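Quick question, first post here. What does this chain look like in 3D?
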Amino acid sequence: MTPAQPQAEPLLRNISDTARWVAVYRARESDRPDALFHDPFARRLAGERGQQIAQSMKFSSANSWSMITRTYLVDQILTAQIQQGVDTVINLAAGLDARPYRMQLPSSLDWIEIDLPEILTYKEEILRGEKPACSLERVRLDLADGAARRNLFALLGRHAKKALIITEGLLIYLTPEEVATLARDLAAAPSFQSWIFDLASPGLLRMLRKKMGSQLSDAGAPLQFAPPEGPEFFIPHGWKPADVRSLFKNAARLKRLPFLLSLLALLPQPERPPASRPWCGVCLLTKG
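> Answer (accepted):
Ran it through. C-alpha cells below.
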C-alpha cells in the first residue's frame, strides 16, 4: 500500500497572510514612475509567499486598483487629520502597514500598532534597522478578545489627547455584531475622536464571495461585513460619517482604472453607497 503523500500547505494559511498579499500591490505601485505613494518596504514585507498569493488571486490582481486607491485615500485622510491635531494613531490589525516608516509624519506623533504576535514579529524582523518617522509602539493582542481589547483601549485612551483609529482591510472579515461591538468599544474612549476604514456594499460582497471567497474562507477569513445602510450603520454605535470617498470614482480621477472601467466611470455615480450594486469606499467617522 502506497503511503499517503503529505498535503501541501495552502498559500493563504490565515487572515494574517492577506497582509502579505496586499503588500505586493503596494510594491507594484511604488515601482511606477507616476506612483501615488512610495513604499520601499512593501516588497520585502510581502516576501515570496506574498508574490505567490497575489499570483493565485487572479480577480484581485485584475482589480488591484481598488487596494492602491484605498491606500492612497487613507494616506490623504490621515495626513489631514494629523494637521487638524491628531496626536495618536491607533492601527488595529496593522498587518504589514509601513506608514510610520514611509510617510512624512511629525516626530511628536504616537503611533500604536495592534495585531497578532506572529505577524508583528515577522514585521519587526523585516524592518529591523529601519527608523520610523514618529514614536512607534507595537502591541501583540488578539482583537477578538473583547475584555483585553477594552482594557487596552481604556489604557490608550487615557494617554492620548486626540486619537485616530485605522482599521484598513479589517471590517469586511467580521460579522455585523462584531463590528457593532468594536464600534461601541472604540466610542467608549473619550479621546478616540476619529476612525478611518474601508467599507463594501452588499453587492460588492456577493461579487467578492463568488470570485475569491472560497480561498479566504478556507484560510479562516470569510468575507462577512457589508451593511446595506452603508456608513450609517455606525450611527447607533457612537459614530457619524464625516467623509466618504468612493474607490471607483477616485481611481478614475487618479487614472488607475483599466480602460473599460474608465469608460464606465464617465457615467453619473450615486452619492450614497448603493446596497445592490458593487461599491467600496474609504470612510472617515467622527464621534456622534
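The two ends are 67 Å apart (CA to CA).
The first helix runs from residue 17 to 31.
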